[in-house]
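User: Modeling request: complex.
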Amino acid sequence: MPLGGVIFITIFIATFGYILIRLARLTGGVAKKTSQAKFDIYECGIPVEEKKDTKISVKFYLTAILFILFDIEIIFMYPWAVNFKNFIAMGAGAFVFISMFVFLSLFIFGLWWEIKSKALEWD
Amino acid sequence: MTSAMTSMGATGLEITVNLIKTVLVFLMMVQAVPILVWLERRGSAFIQNRFGPNRVGPLGLVQLLADAVKFLTKEDFVPEKGSRFMFYAAPIFALIPAAIAYMAIPMSVPLKLDSAMIKATFLIQGFEINVGIVFVLGVSSLAAYTILMAGWGSGSKYSLMGALRASAQIISYELALGLSIVGVILLYGSFSLTEMIAAQQGVLKFSMFGYTVACDYLPNWGIFYQPLGMMLFFAATFAESNRLPFDLAEGEAELVAGFHTEYGGFKMLMFFIGEYGHMMIASGLMATFFFGGYSIWSYTPQEVYQWLYAWVGSAQLANILNTAVHFLSYNIKFAFFLWIFIWVRWTLPRFRYDQLMDIGWKTMLPWALANAMITATLIFVGSYFAF
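Assistant: Request completed. Predicted assembly structure:
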C-alpha cells in the first residue's frame, strides 16, 4: 500500500481547498450584514422558524440499518469471488460453490422477508 | 515514516516523481471540470436545439474563465444558524475522496525510461494498489459524509433533507454497485485493476466445457462476459454520483437545491469538482472493468510496441510513444463515458423518491445477485463438466 502517497495527497488537497477558500475570501470579501434577512437560511421567503431538530422519517434509519446488514453480506462475497478459480483448480470447487449458495439463500431469504414486511415501502 | 514513503519508490528520484505525479493527477482532474461544465452546457444546448454559451471567446470556451472571475468576486457567506466549521470543511472534504479514488485507476502502460541519465519505470497513475477495487469503492463512498456535513452545517431544512435523501440514495445503490462487481471479480480472480486490464488484452478467447472458443476480430473485453453486470454497474454509478435520473438530492422542484442551497462562489465550485470527480471515477472504472482499460482494441501493448519499434527504430522513443498511444486510447474511452453521463442527464426525467428506492432495492439488487450467481455457476460448471 502506498500509504505515504495517500497521506501526502490528502494533506495536499486539504491545503489546496483551504487556500482556495481563503483566496476567495480575500478577493470577494466577507459578507457585509446589510440586513438580518441576508444572513438567515433560505426558506422560500417566509419568516424563518428556528427549529434544528426537524422531524425526519424513520425510513431513513431503517434504510441505513438494512444497508449495513446487506453490505456486510456482500463484502463477505469478495474474498470468495477472488479465490473461486483457485479453489476450482485445487479441486475444492464443489464445496466452496455449494457453501456460497447456502449463504446466498440466506441473503435472498433476508431480502424477501424485508420486501414482504414492507420495510422498503416509501409512501 | 521511511517504510511508508519507500512504498512510493525505491530511490529519492522515484519518490519525488511519484509524489509530483499524484499532484499532477489531482490538478488534471480539477482542470477537467471546467471543460466538462462547458461540454455539459454546449451539449445540453445541442440536445435542446438552442445555442448555449457562444459569446465569450471561440465556441464560448473562455466562458469558463469568466465564470472563475465571477466566483472570485463573490462575498464569503456563512448562514448564522449553521455550524461554521462544518460549513467550511464540507467543500474541502468533498474534493478528497473523488481525487484519491481516481489515483488508483491506471491510465496507460508504465513508462520505461532506459537512458544513461534515468533508468526507471513510472506508472501512469497516482499510485498502484493491489486491492484497487476495494480501495476505490471504499474511498469514493466517503462522499456520503461530505454531503451530510454540508447538509448539517448549513442549518437549513432544505439542505438537511437533501443531504438525508442523498445519503440514503448513495448507500442504497452501494449495494447494487458492490454486488454487480462480484461477477467481474469472479471472472478475473483479482482485486488489482492492472491485472484486470492485463486479463482483457488480446482477442476474445475463452474455454468452457472443454471447448475453446476464439474470435479473432473481437477484443477480450469484460463486456462480452458481463453484459448485465456492466448495465447494473453503470446505472448504479449514476446514483452514486448524484446525476440525473437519480439526482433526488437536489431536486429543484422540491428542495430548492438540496444540500448546497446555502453555498455559493468557490465553495459551491468545490462541490462541483467533487461531483464531476465521481463521474470521472465511474467512467474510468467502466473502461477498466468492461472495456479493456487502456488497451487498444484487441492488440496487446507488446504488439503495439513492436509496430512502433519497427516504425521509429529506437527502443527509447518506441517506449514513450507506446505509453502516449495507450494514454490516448484510455482517454477516448473515458471521454465517451463522460459524454454518456451528460447525454443521459439531458434525456431522461427524474424519478420519484419511492421509485428510486424500489429500483435500487427491488430491481437492481436481485438482478445483481442473479448476475453473480449465474457467473459463478457458469465458471464452476464450465470448468468441471468437460464433454
